[in-house]
Amino acid sequence: MALDRATRNGIARHYAHRGHRWHARWKLACDPAYAAVAELVGDRSLPVLDIGCGIGLLGQYLHAEHAATRYIGVDHDPRKIAAAREAATAAGLDGDMDFRDSDAATLPPVHGHVVMLDVLHYLPAARQQALLRAALAHLAPEGTLVIRNVLREPNWRFHATRVEEFFLRVSGWIPGGAQHYPRAQELGAPLRQAGLDVQVSSLRGRTPYNSYLLVARFSEARTKTRVDGSEQVYSAAQSP
User: Fold this and answer.
1) What share of the chain in percent tops pLDDT 90?
2) Chain-wide mean pLDDT for the chain?
3) CA nearest 27: which of 9, 41, 14?
């Protein structure tokens, strides 16, 4: 569910930069992604790894909704990570949220739910597939992979999204801008091949953009502890 205005404003006030405060108020009021993620990762026993966390709004939302006990946000932009850390400190959430300046090659050793909101289309096609593989490596057997992304489609919403992405690039909010808009099959196929059930649905909310939510979970898997103490996913049909 959407946060009430007082809670949204309270979160926004934790950000020192005026542009970040405006961004937080708008996103928390209009973007349905945060509520969707909170509903999907409501299992508080698993940590949430947010790849491409930006200024950490998802973590702030999950805390306000009591939807996660441990949140780890990573982003390759040190400016956004600094803003996320400052906001977490201002909110008194240093012990609940961990922010790291990192990329897909150096993700923290966390296994739980994995979230990527509006990340993949800023990478070339080959790197998108590499990031999907990295995300899978951090997904717990009972976890949920949540991806919100633009999908390439022949409609006016896709072109409206491209216009928005142009302004995001020239504003400097997303240096380099969009690199490759994937089709649904490009994202869903490798996940299904890895043994996940995949569902794709529209998630544009009150926006004109071509935004979709992709939710993936292992269909029949369990965790088996190996003799070396590590864990590995086994198909229920294959494991003893």
Assistant:
1) 63
2) 85
3) 9
Q: Check residue 105 and give its pLDDT.
A: 76
pTM, 2 dp = 0.85
What are residue 160's DSSP bridge partners? none
First to last CA, the chain: 41
Q: How far is Cα 76 from Cα 101, in angstroms, rounded to an integer?
A: 5
Q: 226: pLDDT confidence band, cut at 50, 70 and 90?
A: very low
Quick: pLDDT tens for 36-48: 999 999 877 899 9
Q: What is the CATH number of domain 5-235?
A: 3.40.50.150
**CA distances (Å), origin 167, targets 81, 141, 175, 185, 236:** 22, 39, 11, 27, 48
CB-based contact 187:213 (threshold 8 Å): no
